[in-house]
């Protein structure tokens, strides 16, 4: 549904995007992950045709953003970083205007506006002025604006920023309910959001994609990969290092007389360790492989890239 | 076409609840009343001529202020991003906004309709001249609104956009006076590009193709540049 | 990907800038083209911007001659209430003249500021217009430009500047001074009489074309050895003699005609008919001309129709009506005299007739076939008499015979929109200035307001207060309605 290849963009001398490429399949929900200023918003603006790239190709729903911007715009719903609202207008009038922008007839407009307001939890708020809405409701109106024409592609720039936990949950439920019919790209710097919503994340920092994959894959790519935790007796901890395949051994302390160690090996060392223990080489109480948390993975990925740059 | 109508409706809705618009409308009506009053007490004539030339200058200052918010404010609110990423063409956006501003101007002029009625009560005005005077003022308004939109499309700051609009239009007023101030051949030629020179005929009941073309060309240039300025985001 | 993104953007951007520049240039060119091919419509009721056809004719003559004409108009006295009008009227006029002609160059000078120009031209009076062509120069004074008319609330200032400038043009083109003699001594209309029945205003109109009206009294003629029509006569006008002209004097007139002279003969119903008309093949039957269509509220003023003669052609084109008063029928004799070409100038409609008394209904005569003559009845005819007639020895003599003498008096001059043009054109045709025949209009006046001192306060409040207050109230209403939403 979305194909991005070799995207480059510079603001003056400062490079904002460097060789960004990724594709999103139909019905997929993808998170754009990265610290502030990483290039998420720039990428999304290029996807919607609001900005142009210095180099690279962007195709949305099979149309080139630069050559056929109109065809792309018809198929995209876009929620910018700040919800685009006219403070003078009421919710109903505003959404009706947005629907009219999408070329809907009068009857269709009132139906779609009603449906969308229901969907984002704005029912009964038609006459409220946008200028008097709280942050959460503004966000909902912004979302309604992106959804009102039921676009196949949704691009949401930080849809949950500044919301309280209950509101965040509401928006998350909404986004999840969109999956399948809609292709969704959302940007965030909140990791738990990704865990809650997206099977896939694209990590971007300093304008470069540093990771792209399922959450599992991402975690596995944390610095050094996964650790294996062991609690042992009857073996000098350091000797664990001598076992086959084990690269790093770190002591974590003693619990109830059991020594806790963290082991990293090239391949999964659990089977080997269990076999050794079964052979009586030492006593083993716990053997657990732990993937790194997303935060660890994120900080690892971003931090490493950050220093490299 | 539908996009134009959509934008036009929205802009009028925003104007209708905009306190600034009411303030400028009141100022405009007050100024026109003042010019009218001075005009008739000075000349005792049943005509709007004094009003027309002064009102054109008032338009020069008021209209950029009325149109300054169009793109500058949309950009600040982030709504420009929405409009430009919607299927609406920039062309419809520009024309819709321009027509909305022009409609507001027409309403302003409607508010001054009491002035010719006063003339009709105390004298016998030439209605043909009254009609062409308003036509001329509306043509001036069209050109000035277009200039205001253009300056608004260039700058992010509303007030700066308004001031730029005024600065952009000032030469069109000042060259009208060039002939009187300098008085040589060149000044005479240059003053042919002044707004007042082209408004003058309308104040006498004359609709001249050259005057109409002048305002049409001015309007068209500014609108076209506005359109280009908006579109430039695509390749800049 | 045929082109790199950068290249595509560059192409699009370069293209956009180029197109923008081209569009701006195209708009300028469109304006310049429109400026060179102006089409103007005057929607004002006064048609103040349209120059009189007379002025246009003279401008065309100036354009044909080619040498430049400079018009310098000086401003009125600052601070005087009338100066605004005077300046504006002059400014409008010179603008129009500038627009209408290629050779005319105009300047409007503030007499108080531009002392240099004033001194160069030796102008010391406000509201003066100087028209120069080569060495020649005509100064038009304030009192020739503006005329105060009426009194009290009806008082107004008429602007006669265009006629004055047109007159100046006439004086500045070739020396075209012509003398028209009017015969006196038999109770004729007199150029020096200023009342409604006089010719003083007519003389002023003729002055526009530099025609001078002089009296000719054969009896008291002292500057000639024997009585005769003077050599400098461009035309001779015989306007409603009250007693018959003696045969001796008629012979003098015929002698003048024989030399290619031009004669205007005007009679009224019931006044003596000069017998020389019979020799020219003109019959004036008894009775007066009436028509179903009359000028309201007069019972004896038929609305004449133009018959395509050169004199009335422009009037017919502009559909400007000439008003006559009680008129005698004027007919060419049947059969036509050899060598005399007669053509009808003014005529009634088909419904007109020659009334010879009889029944009167509602103060209006009725057509009674047994005594009245059937219409259409002609009221003025023009004759061109060639040498074949035996009356003229060289060239062609022009004769205009009118059944209504009042047509040429002060009284009717401003009665109908076409009257002054008709009079002027008649003389132009008679003296052979056919190319000057055109239409002169009425003076442009100013639409005044009648405002009393008490009204002023009311107007001030209506004009300055009402609109803004209503708008502010409306704004406050909208604000209140939206509060708390």
* CATH architecture grouping of the largest domain in chain C: 3-Layer(aba) Sandwich
Major sheet description of chain B: none
Which geometry of chain C do the CA atoms define?
A: globular
Q: How many domains in all of chain C?
A: 2
Descriptive notes:
The complex is a heterotrimer of chains A (309), B (236) and C (485). With 309 residues, chain A is an alpha/beta fold. Helix content of chain A is 34%, strand content 31%. Chain A has a six-stranded mixed β-sheet with strand order 6-7-8-3-9-10, with helices on both faces. Mean pLDDT of chain A is 83; it is low at 305-309. Chain B has 236 residues and is mainly alpha-helical. Chain B has one domain. Chain B has twelve helices and one strand. Chain B has helices at residues 2-16, 19-43, 49-67, 69-77, 79-84, 90-111, 114-122, 127-154, 158-181, 185-191, 195-200, 209-231, and one strand at residues 206-208. In chain B, helix 9 packs across helix 10 (185-191). Chain C has 485 residues and is of the alpha+beta class. Chain C contains 13 helices and 23 strands. An eight-stranded mixed β-sheet of chain C has the order 9-8-10-11-22-21-16-14, sandwiched between helices. In chain C, helix 8 (247-258) links the parallel strand 10 (233-239) and strand 11. The longest helix of chain C is centred in the N-terminal third of the chain and has 32 residues, at 5-36. The mean pLDDT of chain C is 83. Chains B and C meet through helix 2, helix 7, helix 8, strand 1 and helix 12 of B and helix 1, strand 1, helix 3 and helix 13 of C.
Write out key terms for the chains shown.
heterotrimer; B: 236 residues; mainly alpha; 12 helices; 1% strand; globular; C: 485 residues; alpha+beta; Glutaredoxin; Rossmann fold; four-stranded mixed sheet; 13 helices
